[in-house]
Amino acid sequence: MPLDLTASSIELTRQICDIESVSGHEKALADAIETELTRMPHLDVLRDGDLVVARTNLGRARRVVIAGHIDTVPVNGNLPTRFETADGVDYLWGRGTVDMKPGVAVALKLAAELTAPAVDLTWLFYDHEEVASDQNGLARLARTRPELLAGDFAILGEPSNGAVEGGCNGTMRFDVVTRGKRAHSARGWMGENAIHKAAPILRLLADFEPETIEVDGLAYRENLNAVLVGGGVAGNVIPDECRIHVNYRFAPSRRPDEAEAKMRALFEPLGEFELKDLSPGARPGLDDPLAQEFLAAVGLEAKPKYGWTDVARFSVLGIPAVNFGPGDPSLAHADDERVPLAQITACEDALRAWLS
Ligand SMILES: [Zn+2]
User: Fold this and answer.
1) Considering the entire predicted model, what is its pTM?
2) Cα angle for residues 178, 307, 294 (degrees, 5° grid)
C-alpha cells in the first residue's frame, strides 16, 4: 500500500499504522518509505536491511539527525486503527499510534516537504527497535556505517507527550545467585536451603532507597528492582540454587563501570554476581547551542527521560540527542494505545518552525 506524503500528518500516521510492521516484519513499510522518499530530488536515499536513511546535502554548516523506529510490538486485536473521541479529545487508536508511528509520520512528511531547510538533515527510519539490542537497526548502522549517523544534534521521535525529554537513564541487569545443598525435605537438616539464603538479598532490595541525581539541570530518578526469581527442584527437595534477576536503572552521570562496581559492592557479599546486560545512559546535552536553539524554537522546557531509548546510541557517538514526539509513553505497548490528534499536529508544527 503506497503512502501519501502530501496528506496531513494525522492521516499519514493512520496509513503508517495500518501497514503492520511488528519487529522482523518491517519490509513492507520500509519499502513504502523508500519508494516515496526516492521520488524526492532533494534527498539522497540509502537502504540498509529494513532501515531507510534520507539526507539533504546542501552544504549547511550544521546537520541535524531525526530518527524513528518503524517496528512495533506484536499486534493484539488492535489493528486496523480507528479514530475515536473520549472526553472531548480526538484520538487515533491502535497498535503503533503511540510507539512510535506518529513520530515517524511527522518525520516523513517533513522529509518530503522541507526542500531547503535551515540545517542539513538526516532522516532515519530504522528496524528492530522493540527487540534485543543486538538486532537494532540503528546499532547496526553505528557499527557498519557510522558516517551516516554523523550530525551536530539528534532528535528521536519517541513518544514524550509532545514534551522535550533529554538524555536517559542507563540500565543494567544481573543475577545474584545463592547456592546450597540438596537433601530430602523430610530431613532438611541434611541440606542447605539456597532459597532461604536469598532472604538478605530480597531484604536489601526492598529496603533500598534509590537516589535522584541531577545531571545538567535535570533530575534523574534511579530504580533498583528484583524482576525475576527462580529456584527449587521439586516439592520434596531442599533447593540447591536460587537466582534473583535484578534491574538497575542508573542516572546518566554514572559510567557503566561505576554502576557495575556499585552493584557488586552491594550484592557480592550476599551471593554470586553474574552480569547479564549493561547499557550506558545518555547525558541530556542540553547545554549544546543547537539544543538551546531547539528548546527556544519549540517553546518547551526539557524533562528527564527515565526509560532507556536510542538517544543513548547518539550520546555514545558524541551527538547530543533528545526525545520529542507525540503520544503518552505510559501507553506505549498497551493494547489500548492511542494518541491525541492535536499532539501530532503540534509536533509537526514545532519541528517545521525550527527547521525551516
Ligand atoms: Zn519506541
Assistant:
1) 0.82
2) 155
